[in-house]
């Protein structure tokens, strides 16, 4: 951008035609291409005045501002929540204040892995115990549900056979299955795992089956023209095509499983974050319950984000 | 006369729909000779692609006989390679792996891995894509994807190459480029080709015979035009060629006069 160009720049917004001309000239300079508009034009003029060095530092500022824009609203929301919480508990009552909860959390997390008997263990052990149950129940559900989903998606007869059953059972709260688990396994721990199994299996079956039916016909035509073997069709076409759907099913399953484990453990007892919440309720340590709510939320968030990352890795169309 | 690669005798194709039987093709008879390039042209919905799918073996005829090298076509096979309109590359495989999948299927019984890889390299080299071997389909342009599709088809060393509106989704310049390249490849490999198109220029430029289909339902071959233009053909020179103009006019006459579709 030359000085002449700045000099003959008309007053912003007065002459639209000349404005466009100026904007088009700007394309050769450092300033971003501007559309016609008063505010944009003034901003642009400010950038034109700056030397290239300042422009690059301006870009750094832009970057900082972008981070600020991304971070500021969530932080504000969180601060608002804690503020409200503080105001609500300022006059005492059953709910502990944020400060009191924080103090309790500091004590709690200073030693998360202590062990004093089966009913008194650190919060770390409790979270790990819950995660273990979820992992086992979910693992078995995946081992059964994903192949079942492939079969249902591939063979219409199976789908017609099983769809009414799945539709009937899917809306049932998994906790309703807990007594059956207790009856069959005679112990609380496998019964909780069984509940997780039941709640995780439906999304995996349904999503996998849907993925199989949605494999583009083109890909299957390629398989037919190339005369690929069933194994090649599965490994090179079916599995990669279904993978994104499968991962959606897995993500939904993990989410539900993490929701359900808390409730299941409240009923079955033992070690686990759900049981811990109930135990702390019996001890009337409400601040610990609030801490547990945060812990459960954060663990759920981490599980979800991990699976989102994996899913993004295996999504081909949008890359 | 050269050897017949594909023979189509009195072939008809009908589909069962909710409204009853729909006859797509009837009484189609056509011999495709070795080294010949044939264009199938007609209005959309006239059954061009149906006929190509029949040759490919993706669908089987309701009546009549289809032979490839004297044997009945009972299903798809690597001796009849198809280039699909929308390239149909597998998005999770690189260009190399997409072609390798085909090569491996056809030649792995007799040849070692090194030879298979060499074949794959050669096929991609033929379409000028050696530099893009390691790329994924979403990383390359539409024209390049279609070239990979052609490379995949050629890599199988098919007896006949079937192209289903291969350049339909491309812009005019890319299309012209690919048509020229296809002509060179056909000349170099002496491959037999059947191509579905609705582009009159493309049909005349690329083929030895243009098979014109009447409007569906119950479409059949209306006319067959023989294009007597020496190869190699040059699209610029042909623009002023009298015979090229005649061929064009004849196809246009068929499409827009004899078979004019009533506005749907």
Structural overview:
The complex is a heterodimer of chains A (319) and B (264). In chain A, 77% of the residues lie in helices and 0% in strands. Chain A starts with a helix and ends in a 6-residue tail after the last helix. Chain A contains 13 helices and no strands. Chain A has two domains: 3-49, no CATH class; 109-313, MetI-like (MetI-like fold), CATH 1.10.3720.10. Chain A is an all-alpha fold and 319 residues long. The model of chain B has no long low-confidence stretch (mean pLDDT 89). In chain B, strands 6-7-8-3-9-10 form a six-stranded mixed beta sheet, sandwiched between helices. Chain B has a four-stranded antiparallel beta sheet with strand order 2-1-4-5, with helices on one face. With 264 residues, chain B is α/β, with parallel strands linked by helices.
Describe the secondary structure blueprint for this structure.
The complex is a heterodimer of chains A (319) and B (264).
Chain A: H1 3-7, H2 16-26, H3 38-49, H4 52-88, H5 98-110, H6 123-154, H7 156-169, H8 178-185, H9 188-213, H10 217-226, H11 230-268, H12 273-282, H13 286-313
Helix pairs in contact in A: 5-13, 6-7, 6-9, 6-11, 6-12, 8-9, 9-11, 11-12, 11-13, 12-13
Chain B: E1 4-17, E2 20-33, E3 37-41, H1 48-56, E4 63-68, E5 71-72, E6 80-83, H2 95-107, H3 113-126, H4 142-155, E7 160-164, H5 172-189, E8 192-197, H6 200-206, E9 209-213, E10 221-226, H7 235-238, H8 242-258
Parallel strand pairs in B: 3-8, 3-9, 6-7, 7-8
Antiparallel strand pairs in B: 1-2, 1-4, 4-5, 9-10
Helix pairs in contact in B: 2-3, 2-4, 3-4, 6-8
């Amino acid at each position: 951008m030359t000085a002449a160009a700045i000099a003959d720049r008309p007053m912003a917004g007065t002459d639209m035609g000349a404005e466009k001309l100026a904007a088009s000239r700007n394309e050769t300079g450092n300033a971003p291409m501007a559309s016609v508009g008063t505010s944009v034009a003034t901003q642009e003029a400010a950038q034109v005045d700056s030397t290239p060095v300042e422009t690059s530092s301006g870009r750094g500022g832009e970057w900082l501002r972008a981070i600020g824009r991304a971070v500021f609203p969530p932080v504000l929301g969180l601060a608002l929540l804690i503020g409200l919480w503080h105001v609500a508990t300022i006059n005492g009552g059953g709910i502990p204040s944020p400060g009191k909860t924080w103090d309790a959390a500091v004590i709690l997390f200073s030693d998360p892995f202590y062990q004093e008997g089966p009913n008194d263990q650190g919060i770390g052990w409790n979270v790990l115990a819950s995660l273990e149950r979820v992992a086992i129940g979910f693992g078995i559900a995946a081992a059964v549900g994903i192949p079942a989903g492939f079969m249902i998606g591939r063979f219409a007869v199976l789908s017609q056979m099983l769809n009414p059953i799945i539709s009937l059972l899917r809306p049932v709260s998994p906790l309703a299955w807990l007594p059956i688990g207790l009856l069959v396994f005679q112990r609380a721990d496998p019964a909780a795992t069984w509940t997780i199994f039941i709640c995780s299996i439906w999304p995996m079956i349904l999503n996998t089956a849907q993925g199989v039916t949605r494999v583009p016909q083109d890909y299957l035509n390629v398989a037919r023209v190339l005369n690929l073997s069933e194994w090649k069709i599965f490994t090179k076409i079916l599995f990669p095509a279904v993978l994104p759907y499968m991962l959606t099913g897995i993500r939904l399953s993990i989410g539900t499983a993490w929701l359900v484990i808390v409730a299941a453990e409240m009923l079955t007892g033992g070690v686990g974050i759900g049981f811990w919440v109930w135990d702390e309720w019996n001890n009337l340590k409400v601040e610990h319950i609030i801490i547990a709510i945060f812990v459960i939320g954060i663990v759920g968030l981490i599980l979800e984000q991990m699976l989102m990352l994996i899913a993004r890795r295996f999504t081909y169309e949008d890359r | 006369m050269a050897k017949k690669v594909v023979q189509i005798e009195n072939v008809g194709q009908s589909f069962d729909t909710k409204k009853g039987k729909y006859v797509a093709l009837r009484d189609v008879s056509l011999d495709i000779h070795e080294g010949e390039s044939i264009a199938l042209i007609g209005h959309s919905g006239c059954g061009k692609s149906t006929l190509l799918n029949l040759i490919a073996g993706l669908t089987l005829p309701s009546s009549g006989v289809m032979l490839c090298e004297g044997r009945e076509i009972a299903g798809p096979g690597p001796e009849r390679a198809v280039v699909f309109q929308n390239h149909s590359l597998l998005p999770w495989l690189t260009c190399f792996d997409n072609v390798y999948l085909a090569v491996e299927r056809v030649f792995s019984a007799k040849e070692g891995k090194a030879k298979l890889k060499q074949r794959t390299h050669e096929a991609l080299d033929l379409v000028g894509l050696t530099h893009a071997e390691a790329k994924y389909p979403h990383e390359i342009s539409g024209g390049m994807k279609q070239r990979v599709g052609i490379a995949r088809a050629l890599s199988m060393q098919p007896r006949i190459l079937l192209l289903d509106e291969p350049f339909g989704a491309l812009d005019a310049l890319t299309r012209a480029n690919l048509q020229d390249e296809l002509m060179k490849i056909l000349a170099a490999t002496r491959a037999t080709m059947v191509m579905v198109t609705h582009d009159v220029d493309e049909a005349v430029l690329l083929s030895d015979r243009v098979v014109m289909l009447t409007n569906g339902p119950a479409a059949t071959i209306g006319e067959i035009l023989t294009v007597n233009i020496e190869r190699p053909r040059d699209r610029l020179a042909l623009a002023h060629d009298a015979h090229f103009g005649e061929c064009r006019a004849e196809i246009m006459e068929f499409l827009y006069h004899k078979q004019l579709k009533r506005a749907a």
